[in-house]
C-alpha cells in the first residue's frame, strides 16, 4: 500500500462509522470517474490529481465538503443550486443522500478540463521550441 492511499485511509478512519461510509462512497465515485488519477492528501484533505488537482473532499460535523475548484462549481451551478456553495466549495449535508452521480459528472468534467489544459500547455511549449 502506498503512503498516499494509507494517508487517505487514515483520514477516513478518523471519523465515525456513518461518516466513513459516506467518505468511501465519495472516494469510490471519484476513483471510478477518474481511474488514472493519483490519490493523495493535500491541504489536509483527500485529493485526487491528474495533470493538476481535480478535486478535494473532506468531512465536517454536518456536511461533506467537495472542492471542484471554481470551474467545477461554475459548470454545474444549476445542479448545485440546492446546495450551499462557495467560490470553489460545495457542502453536501450528511443527513441527506450524497449526489454521487453529480459528483461523477463534476469529476469527469474536471478530468477533461485538466487534460485539455495539459495538452494546450504541451502544444504551446512545442511551438516555443520550434520557433
TrEMBL record:
This is Uncharacterized conserved protein YdhG, YjbR/CyaY-like superfamily, DUF1801 family. It comes from the Bacteria. SUPFAM superfamilies: YdhG-like. It comes from Kriegella aquimaris. Residues 20-111 form the YdhG-like domain. It holds the Pfam family DUF1801. InterPro entries: YdhG-like. Gene3D superfamilies: 3.90.1150.200.
Amino acid at each position: 500500500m502506498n503512503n498516499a492511499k494509507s494517508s487517505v485511509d487514515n483520514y477516513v478512519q478518523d471519523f465515525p462509522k456513518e461518516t466513513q461510509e459516506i467518505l468511501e462512497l465519495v472516494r469510490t465515485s471519484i476513483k471510478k470517474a477518474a481511474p488514472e488519477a493519483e490519490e493523495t492528501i493535500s491541504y489536509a484533505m483527500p485529493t485526487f490529481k491528474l495533470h493538476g488537482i481535480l478535486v478535494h473532499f473532506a468531512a465536517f460535523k454536518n456536511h461533506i465538503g467537495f472542492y471542484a475548484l471554481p470551474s467545477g462549481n461554475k459548470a454545474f451551478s444549476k445542479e448545485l443550486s440546492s446546495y450551499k456553495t462557495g467560490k470553489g466549495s460545495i457542502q453536501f449535508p450528511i443527513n441527506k443522500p450524497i449526489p454521487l452521480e453529480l459528483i461523477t459528472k463534476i469529476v469527469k468534467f474536471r478530468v477533461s478540463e485538466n487534460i485539455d489544459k495539459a495538452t494546450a500547455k504541451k502544444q504551446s511549449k512545442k511551438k516555443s521550441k520550434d520557433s
